[in-house]
Amino acid sequence: VHSNTTLGGVQKFSSEYLKAQLTGDASRAIASFPLSNINYMYGQAIKLVKERFGHPSKIMSAQMQALLGIASPANQLTSLQLFYDTMDNPIRGLESLGRSHESYGGLLIPTILRKLPYELRKTLAHKYDNPEWKFQELRGAIEKEIRILEAGAQLNDTSY
After folding, report:
1. Of 7, 8, 131, 144, whose CA is between 20 and 30 Å from 73?
2. Cα–Cα distance list, 40 to 17, 32, 45, 48, 76 (Å)
3. pLDDT band at 56; cut points 50, 70, 90
């Protein structure tokens, strides 16, 4: 939004652009700024957002907390899909900060495995027989199991 030269300050600041990208505390932080070129162009709103929320270490910490706080899924397709998607979002956030899964994956593997339903852990152990997971391998294995469940669900769907 900030680097788009085709938009004016009011447009960049509007609810369709900058304000639409912010949620929670960041959204509340700039809510009191009147919608004007001056507030955007002189950087008051941007400065406040960067000062309060633009620290890579804080962002990385928040992404790691999100990963650690993911709720355990049930052994059902929709629950596993939600778990995977919820896990994937902070991972993409960490990657956008230049953090590779090699730097944090080893710490998360036991946590992620503990959160998985017993039946899925048993399936992974049986199929992959891999006592030393790498984070990307574990992600891929979980995703593969979800795809298998999706295929099975499609076969059970009699509506077509």
Report:
1. 131
2. 12, 13, 6, 11, 47
3. confident
